[in-house]
Amino acid sequence: LPDGVMEKWMPSFIKNISILVGETIGITEEIMGLTILAAGTSIPDLITSVIVARKGLGDMAVSSSVGSNIFDITVGLPLPWLLHAFINNFTPVIVSSNGLFCAIVLLFIMLLFVILSIGACKWKMNKILGLIMFILYIVFLIVSVLLEQKTIECPVTVGSL
After folding, report:
1. Which of 10, 28, 74, 108 is deepest in the core (most CB within 10 A)?
2. CA proximity to 105, closest of 61, 161, 57
3. pLDDT tens per residue, range 125-154
4. How far is CA 6 from the centre of its chain?
5. pTM over 0.85
6. How far apart are alpha carbons 77 and 71 in whole angstroms?
7. What residues form the membrane-spanning segments (predicted)?
8. Minimal CA–CA distance to 124: which of 67, 61, 42?
């Protein structure tokens, strides 16, 4: 393939295949985004973090992970929304998620637990901290999926804000 071709079609291909697989086995787009697509876009960050951590640069691994998420939230989300607004006469982007407010609150709670866990491990990256963070991620996924499937209800809905 010529240079640059794969970079242009690969994200669209992955998204479309994910939606197709999700629809085939009955998984919503929101849950696919929360699990498969989120993990897929984080693999380069994971590889980078492993490489620098093996070189003894744990601070850089953590900083890269945190910085990547901040970049995604503050640039990766608003930039496409701004482009959409400019192209579509400032029509807002509608985000439909059953438990969006609670998922955001859960994200902040998870961040607090991550900070407390790092502090409890005396600011050292070790296997126990890794296990704690992995468990926190599983809890986040479970609660987010339960919110999205309306198995548990978020007391605050987007329309009530």
Report:
1. 28
2. 161
3. 789 988 998 999 899 888 888 888 888 888
4. 23
5. no
6. 9
7. 31-53, 65-87, 93-116, 128-147
8. 61
